[in-house]
Specification:
single chain, mainly alpha
C-alpha cells in the first residue's frame, strides 16, 4: 500500500472529505493527486496530513 492509499483509507475511515483533510495548508486537488498516486507529498505535507489524521508520520511512511 503506498502513501496515497494509506491517506485515503484513513480519511475515509474518519468520514472526512478531501477538502476537510486538506484544510488550509494544501489544496484539495493536491490531496487528490497524492491519494491517486500521481504526486508525491513533501515531508512538510506528510507531517501536516499526519497531524490532521492524528497518526504518526512514520505510519504513513512505513512499508507494509
Amino acid at each position: 500500500m503506498n502513501i496515497g492509499e494509506k491517506i485515503k483509507e484513513l480519511r475515509v475511515a474518519k468520514l472526512m472529505t478531501q477538502s476537510e483533510l486538506a484544510g488550509t495548508q494544501i489544496t484539495r486537488n493536491m490531496l487528490s493527486c497524492i491519494e491517486n498516486g500521481t504526486a508525491q507529498p513533501s515531508l512538510s505535507t506528510i507531517l501536516y496530513i499526519a497531524s490532521r489524521l492524528n497518526v504518526p508520520a512514520g505510519f504513513l511512511l512505513a512499508d507494509e
